[in-house]
Amino acid sequence: MKGSRYITHLLRLSRIEKPLANFFASGILNLRDKLGPFLWQFPPQFQFQPERLDAFFRLLPRTTAQALALARRHAVEIRHPSFMTAAFVRLLREHGIGLVVADTAGKWPRMFHVTADFVYVRLHGDVKIYTSGYSGRALASWARRIRNWDRDGRDVYVYFDNDVKVKAPFDALDLMEKLGLACHPPDATC
Asked: How many CB atoms lie under 10 A from the CB of residue 155?
């Protein structure tokens, strides 16, 4: 579930108490066990501001039993190089917030720090963002990383966002096959 752009892009994490409450009250928690981590994607010009991020992380729901069970995982995707600091990584770990490992074909920073009990990977395109597919070699490399994170006992979520030329579903199926998770069309569970 992707967090509201109103909160991240328009308000830029300022004066967000009511919009954040409205976002979580919108019915998304009804997804229950189908709900994975919440993705909070920051715009490219949004720079690392420790105090603002700390305040935002403290607002994220983790206090009630339902929120703890269903909305306890959050991940942030950064796009500004100012986030490439040890202070940012420490802040994420302190709050148990995942750092999104984003492959953006070199357009934005890519960091591999594991900061939570899960890993969230967003694959936007290997060579050209949003449009290029992933070669077998590139997918094999991602499969190795995923296996390593899995061996460390972490849940790994992978999202392909290279769908302008309908590459995402095929890349996802190829990656699943490389991980031994091949999906067979008659099987409704895949």
From this structure: 15
**Residues of the chain falling short of pLDDT 70:** 62-72, 183-190
pLDDT tens digits for 54-105?
A: 999 998 876 545 454 445 689 999 999 999 999 999 999 999 999 999 999 9
Q: Bridge partners of 41?
A: 77
Could you give the number of structural domains in the chain? 2
Structure token pair of residue 52: 């603002």
Q: Which residue range(s) make up the domain with 176?
A: 117-190
**Any residues with CB less than 8 A from the CB of 102 and at least 6 apart, and which?**
77, 78, 108, 110, 121, 122, 124
Q: For the whole model, what pTM was predicted?
A: 0.86
Distances from the Cα of 59 to the Cα of 17, 33, 65, 75, 122, angstroms? 7, 22, 16, 14, 24
110 within a domain of the structure (yes/no): no
Residue burial 38-71, b: 16+ Cβ < 10 Å; e: rest: bbbbbeeebebeeeebeebbeebbbeeeeeeebb
Structure tokens at 143: 């499969």
Residue 151's CB: how many other CB atoms inside 10 A? 8
Q: Which CATH number goes with the domain that contains 56?
A: 3.20.20.410
